[in-house]
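Per reviewer request, we include the raw input and output of the structure prediction for the construct analysed in the revised manuscript.
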Amino acid sequence: MDLSLSTRTEGGRSVVVVGGEIDVYTAPKLRDQLVDLVDSGHHHIVVDMRGVEFLDSTGLGVLVGGLKRVGQHDGSLRLVCTQERILKIFRITGLTKVFPIHATVDEAIAAT
């Protein structure tokens, strides 16, 4: 399975819609997208992960790196995730305390 990425602007936020698997092979594609957004002045990002079927530690590292990168610009990185198996990874790793996780893009945008 590959990784699909699309980006749009909504409510003054950059929304990155991610689908497929975020693993050691595909995570660099997501990292590059997040770096490009921050480097071009987009410091408030919502990552819509509702289409993600698999997430490994490399993918988690990319998300944490993105959070640190936007944090250097007083920005925010919020996640949209509704799949229990993906949410479980965030709970087990303690990253639910680090990332704001929302059920919808609208909710994530309203919270930022």
